[in-house]
Amino acid sequence: MNVTLKVWRQKGPKAPGHFEAYTIEANPEMSFLEALDVINEGLVEKGEEPIAFEHDCREGICGSCGAVVDGRAQGPTERTALCQVHLRTFHEGQKITVEPFRAAAFPIIKDLVVDRSSLDRIIESGGYISVRAGSAPDANNLPIGKAEADYAFDVAACIGCGACVAACPNASAMLFTAAKVTHLGLVPQGQPERDHRVLQMVNTMDDQGFGYCTNHGECSAVCPKGIPQSAIAWLNRDYRRAALRGDDS
Amino acid sequence: MNLDSKAPTGVPIQQAWDIHRRNINVVNPANKRKYTIIVVGTGLAGASASATLAELGYNIEAFSFHDSPRRAHSIAAQGGINAAKNYQNDGDSVWRLFHDTIKGGDFRSRESNVYRLAQVSVDIIDQCVAQGVPFAREYGGLLANRSFGGALVSRTFYARGQTGQQLLLGAYQALAKGISAGKIHVHPRHELLDVIVMDGHAKGIVTRNLVTGAIDAHVADAVVLATGGYGNVFYLSTNAKKSNVTAAFRAYKRGAGFANPCFTQIHPTCIPHTGDYQSKLTLMSESLRNDGRVWVPKKKGDERRPNEIPEGERDYYLERIYPTFGNLVPRDVASRAAKRMCDDGYGVGPTGLGVYLDFKDAIARLGKDVIADRYGNLLEMYQRITDENPYEVPMRIYPAAHYMMGGLWVDYNLMTTIPGLYSIGECNFSDHGANRLGASALMQGLADGYFVLPYTIGDYLAEQKPGSADPNHPAVADAIRTVKTRIEKLLAVGGKRSAAHFHRELGKVLWEKIGMARDREGLEEALTRIPEIRAAFWSDLAVPGTGQDLNLELEKAGRVADFLELAELLARDALTREESCGAHFRLEHQTADHEAKRDDENFSHSAVWEFKGEDSEPERHREPLTFEYVHPSQRSYK
Predict the structure, then answer these.
(1) Looking at the structure, do residues A134 and A241 belong to the same domain, yes or no?
(2) Domains in chain A: how many in total?
(3) What is the CATH number of the domain that holds A34?
(4) Contact B275/A123, CB-based, under 8 Å?
(5) What pLDDT, on a 0 to 100 scale, did the predictor assign at position B374?
(6) For residue B283, what is the nearest residue in chain A, using CA coordinates?
(7) Mind listing the pLDDT tens digit for each residue in B388-402?
(8) Which of A1, A16, B264, B366 has a CA that sits 20 to 30 A from residue B632's CA?
(9) From CA B511, how far away is CA B281, in angstroms rounded?
(10) Confidence check on the interface: ipTM exceeds 0.90, yes or no
(11) pLDDT for residue A249 is more than 60
(12) Do A240 and A120 fall within a single domain?
């Protein structure tokens, strides 16, 4: 099949960007990133700089890849990271627009590559349970009901790709933050640091330049792991509770 | 080359680790904060080591070529992690896990290390649960288990098909805590390009900042490599695209012994190859073999759709050949059986390189919901990639390169042959022998990082004056020069072909000649072909752009250049190991029923290669293996 990719090219953080169109003869079984590989190999052989894009596992789990494809973060396939989108999703002759994730907290480095380290800062400010190696009790000392365990897994499945931020009209990292707050707040191990965690993580989210959540729900719609909106409700409740009780840690 | 394992001798293996910990040096708690340790890699091994060392008080400089420590390839591990908890009351024990691992590795690993691994396996699960890792649970709230290949007990803990992700996020969060406490400084988007050896000791590394292109030296009191395996030498593998051998290979060139490079695991259940454009192969967890049954049609070249083939015309060949272990034979055995079926003309799918993995009986027995609960996300991923519904049509699978048992040689303390240079996780060669059992990679990475290295590194540091590494030592300038020269050389070739082009060529040679079956003729041919590809690479490589900014082609070219050298070492190792063991299958050495035929008299050793210079052949050394507790026998899973 024949497709044309209109790709955002930008040499560096401060350089102006523009779209460039590449038409390729592709196999419908190819993944979207393999189509970019084909374009890039052609560019390299012509001595031109290839399109810079992030990728690694190509199994939808590492969270490295991601772009806005025809206006949708992570492409047209629901609950799917860009590396797992296949060209059979598109039609013959389709023109496809490919842009980087755009958000104040994700400055562009080059072409489709953005700096998402602001998400790491959020986790560093409290997205963990403090436990020294060697001091843990026997694992089965702490039974957790299957329903809670399953829900904790559902929200813990976040891959940290940042599509939620790119899709949000406010460029908020609410779903990302809520996923971790909910995961750790739901399990008994996470209780001692629960209030401190939610207050710190929400503060850091603001400090890093992410916007506020106004409940558009675009984040869950594009999330490759389908992290539900209920996580945000959980965060809001937990945040208010913690704020009322005061952070004495 | 000194290959003293330093494993305790003359003591019962059950007490060896305790006695060793009592005998080694310990750094005074007040002095730990004076030492700085470089940890390269933030996967399971690297992140867990960084976090634990920081908790102990050491200062950690952690490096990753990813944009975030959480992207390391450990994240992609699907099926589970083994531990001898015996929560299922099915007779598991530390001893049984030790025994299974030694046998699964076909008697080519060090008993003392493997016993220790089995011992600490139970602590890993405790640690991970305390961190909040959402393992699968039963309705009563206790932890669930499943079975994996090569074991007759259910000892694998799991988090649906994303166990690696959840364990890595646990370790990443522990790392994040160390960062917030100011004890860990992470350098993302930095790639190690050389190891600095001062007066015989590893005291630093040279990195390239992947965004600015800056080449910098970093010195410390010790260096830990947790940089993963080299499966991408095959080009098509289940590894992430950026996984590479560069750190380990640079260390090898600086004097670290490289052990058993030919022990390369080909995983039996991956989605088959479809075309030349393909960039990687996707693994389908071994856990699927708990409930899925592997079969091929009894008739050669049967072109009927799988659901049209009646029960009586299907050959469930693993259950037929290996009635005791059935579909849960170890990976090397399952892979070779699939290859043999396809080579004999029974393969399925458009290429004939595939066998069926069928859930029909499991769905009939347990219902679709139970299967979805156990494997839902894996089956979804299969459907996304192949556009076929595995609940209705049997999956098609074929083996692919997956995990490398070979790696940097380490002693019982996990130190390489360079004092002060440690290697942990898949990067080292230690515990899996010639074949790794499923769900044991996560176990080993976390054992090394949480529970072994944090103690053993003190033995070395206690004898070093903290902060004594001199940033003005001539070795620093020399390493920087070496790195810069190499980058300039890569940029200056000015040819017409991308690095991926040469990588694909190399991968084809490896898959055909050094893949699941090897023989002298093929290996000698590979030893001719690999230098030819390498020569073509250095005369026709194209790397557009400069070294002064983000240049993904330059990164790739550097990694492929190292694969082109490693591949030769791999072929040489396979050629000199004149026996079959585990994943290393020499056609000349097989039993009448096509099983691996070991030669314990001549090859009961680890082969450790020493770099002798660019124009000389490497030297092969041996670390003899002795088995006091598990008597070597012909492995049987029948």
Answers:
(1) yes
(2) 2
(3) 3.10.20.30
(4) no
(5) 85
(6) A59
(7) 999 999 999 999 999
(8) B264
(9) 13
(10) yes
(11) no
(12) yes
Q: List pLDDT tens digits, range B439-486.
A: 999 999 999 999 999 999 999 999 999 999 999 999 999 999 999 999
Would the pTM count as exceeding 0.90?
yes
Give B90-136 as a DSSP string. SS--HHHHHHHHHHHTTS-S-HHHHHHHHHHHHHHHHHHHHTT----
What is the structure's pLDDT at B255?
98
One domain for residues A83 and A162: no
Q: What is the mean pLDDT of residues A117-125?
A: 98
Most A CBs within 10 Å, among B157, B163, B177, B373, to test the A interface: B177
Q: What is the DSSP string of B256-273?
A: --EE-TT-EEEEEEEPPP
Q: Which residue shows structure tokens 């210079």? A: B613
B172 contacts in A (CB within 8 Å)? 123
Residues facing B623 on adjacent strands: B606
**Where a domain ends, among A53, A85, A110?**
A110
Model confidence over B400-422: pLDDT tens digits? Answer: 999 999 999 999 999 999 999 99
Q: Which of A44, A79, A110 is the last residue of a domain?
A: A110
Best interface-test mutation with B: which of A125, A131, A176, A182 has the largest number of B CBs within 10 A? A131
Q: What is the mean pLDDT of chain B?
A: 96
Q: If we measure between CA atoms, which residue out of B566, B445, B430, B360 comes closest to residue B163? A: B445
The pLDDT tens digits of the residues spanning A151-191 come to: 999 999 999 999 999 999 999 999 999 999 999 999 999 99
Q: Which residue has the tokens 């979804």?
A: B380
B218 touches chain A (CB under 8 A): no
Same domain for A71 and A122, yes or no, is no
pLDDT confidence of residue B634: 85
Q: Among B41, B286, B264, B273, which Cα is nearest to B168's? A: B41
Whether A133 and A62 map to the same domain: the answer is no
Are A241 and A121 members of one domain?
yes
Chain B residue numbers with beta carbons less than 8 Å from the beta carbon of A86 are 384-385, 387
Gap between the terminal Cα atoms of chain A: 60
| DSSP H or E segment with residue B44 | helix B44-56
Q: Which domains occur in chain B, in start order?
A: 267-402 (3.90.700.10), 490-603 (1.20.58.100)
Output the pLDDT for position A248.
58
Instruction: Collect all residues of chain A within an 8 Å Cβ-Cβ radius of residue B280.
Output: 58
Q: Are residues A62 and A151 in the same domain?
A: no
Indicate the SS3 state at residue B533: helix
Residue A145: domain span: 116-245
Residues of chain B with Cβ-Cβ distance to A134 below 8 Å are 123, 127, 451
Are residues A103 and A126 located together in one domain of the fold? no
Hey, is the C-beta of B451 within 8 angstroms of any chain A C-beta? yes
Beta strands in B405-550 (DSSP E): 407-408, 421-423
Q: What angle do CA B370, B372, B377 make, to 5 degrees?
A: 150
